[in-house]
Amino acid sequence: MTSFLEINGLNLSVHSDGRVLPILSDVSLTLERSEAVAIVGETGSGKTLTARAVMGVLPKNAVIRSGTITFNGVNVLTKEGAAAAREHIAMIFQNPMSSINPLFRVEDQMNDVLNWSLHGRKETKEEKTSRIRSALEGAQCYGDGKILRMFPFQLSGGMRQRVMIAMALLRKPSLLIADEPTTALDVTTQKEILSLLTKLTKEEKMSLILITHNLGIARESSMKTYVMYAGRVVEAGPTAQIFRKPLHPYTKGLIDSIPSLDKSRSMEGIDGEIAQQDRAAVGCCFASRCSYAIDKCLTRQPELKELAPGQKVACYVAEQGGLRVV
Questions:
Q1: Does residue 15 sit in helix, strand or coil?
Q2: Whole-number Å distance between alpha carbons of 311 and 153
Q3: Is the pTM of this model over 0.85?
């Protein structure tokens, strides 16, 4: 039985300055109906490109070398399959100010989204207005239609993000992809947006892919977590289990980097910078930053293996039980 969304062995490269650079390497992910999954990792780890591959909206210089992506039984990597999948997938992009046209009022832009989703079906102006207002209310944008007459620059960051969510809801998607939906928002607004996404996925029975570099957000809002580093999935499993006992040194480092009010727990960072994918072909992609690395880590990339029930990790040290987790 296949999952609602299934990515298997995805390998993707980009052409840049006459070179072919591997960006995603053997990425695999599964998502069930009405399930919330988080993809976490530093900037440049391949989170957004993975999501864009699902949407079929990759940059022109990106090439999928191998692998499969199926959504609700449809092959997304064909032109017809990608078009069919986009009928049921919506994406909230990272920066709402650059994703909403600043020259048009909210109502005009929502009408464009609605007209596209109708695919030629006729609706009266009153029916369209009713659907738009219903979507705005679902995204907790209230104000008796005042927001519809406003330009994006007249809205706060949190309200712009809610408008983006409302646009996504207009399409009635069965899968919602939220790419860093709380970036540049204050802590209170972040919590409101996350609570809204959680509420909507339950009420609308949508599946959710949450892309974030914030592990606290992943812990609060997802059932499963995929940890990506340098274009690879290095750990995957139930979110609560990963936070309770991370098996990969990178995951442990991310968790140890979270600030805490517990004075007995010190906050530790991860030394070095994220590996460049084109330089990570030999050995473990995290070896240069890993304090646990052994000789084997420098010569061969570890495979993603299930080392605990439902929890997979790509790490030789973890395979030997050598990762010290307190």
A1: strand
A2: 44
A3: yes
Instruction: For 300-320, give one letter per residue: b (16+ CB within 10 A) or e.
Output: ebbebeebeeebbbbbbbbbe
Let me know: does 250 contact 227? Beta carbons within 8 Å.
Answer: yes
Report pLDDT for 325: 46
What are the structure tokens assigned to 274, written together?
């994220």
Q: Which of 210, 10, 186, 188 is nearest to 94 (CA)?
A: 210
- 234 closest CA partner among 292, 170, 156, 187: 292
For residue 62, the SS3 value is strand
**3-state SS, residue 118:** helix
In order of their start, the domains of the chain are 5-88+173-319 (3.40.50.300)
Residue 234 to residues 80, 196, 294, Cα–Cα distance (Å): 32, 29, 17
Phi, psi of 304 (to 5 degrees): -75, 115
| DSSP strands (E only) in 4-101 | 5-16, 19-31, 36-40, 62-71, 74-75, 89-92
Mean pLDDT of the chain: 87
Q: Which residue has the higher pLDDT, 62 or 157?
A: 62
